[in-house]
Design a protein that fits this description.
Blueprint (H helix, E strand, L loop, with lengths): L15 H21 L7 H13 L3 H32 L1 H16 L2 H12 L3 H25 L3 H9 L4 H39 L4 H10 L3 H31 L8
Helix pairs in contact: 2-10, 3-4, 3-6, 3-8, 3-9, 4-6, 5-6, 5-8, 6-8, 8-9, 8-10, 9-10
Keywords: Cell membrane, Membrane, Transmembrane, Transmembrane helix, Transport
Family: Belongs to the binding-protein-dependent transport system permease family.
Protein name: ABC transporter permease subunit
Length: about 260
Amino acid sequence: MTRQTISGPARQVPKIWAVGGVILLLGAWQVAANALGPMLMATPWATLRALGPLIRDPAFLPAVSASLERIVLGVGTGCLLGFALGVLAAHSPQLRAVLEPLRWLLMAIPPIVVVVLAMLWFGLGSTMVMFMTVLMMAPGMYVNTVKGMLQVDRDLVEMSHVYRFGAWRRLLHLYLPALTAPLTAALLIALSGGVRLVVMAEVLGADSGVGYALANARSTFDSAQLYAWVLLILLLVAALEFALLQPLQRRLGMWREPSHA
């Protein structure tokens, strides 16, 4: 009997392993909460009990709406800016050389420094949060776009010129299919990183939003409410991934041709 080899996508892992990972995290959380005490860390059950009053609070929806607007606009603008600059820089070595020091600076500087500078320039509020988010999101998308476009087969690029493809047609039918993998990876990183940046900026220098509410819970030593907000932030990231990122990944994945054994 010949032994069959597995080809194509990796074999699906049973979901029970993911459930096991969640149970392991909850167990570790419970052990840490028992060791630290209720003042420093609420238990999972205390956090769940705090969710109900938190969601019924009249200030809940305005806080979530403010943060969600900043996340969508900040991450979206940063990713679009990085993608546009990446497309232009991939076609122009001169522009790529000009942007390289700025790219390096933005990827090397700690986000907390950008938050402090943005607070000095724009004060507290949405402008500061949006500026910081766009500035931190654009370099990652820029790097992935440039690297993906430079790795496209030069023969295919020359062929597109021979057949007189315009710039838009070349981008749509040549570069975007090649950018599917790096773009989806960059979008996933940008989404989770963008939420962290927005919440951090709100904690340090905003007068509304989830981060502002998180800072208030910390200042009153309400650990159950603090961890309830943390849990809601995790649920927000999951909702954004399922509602926005996964449909976009499927849309980009339509460029890929199915593999045949």
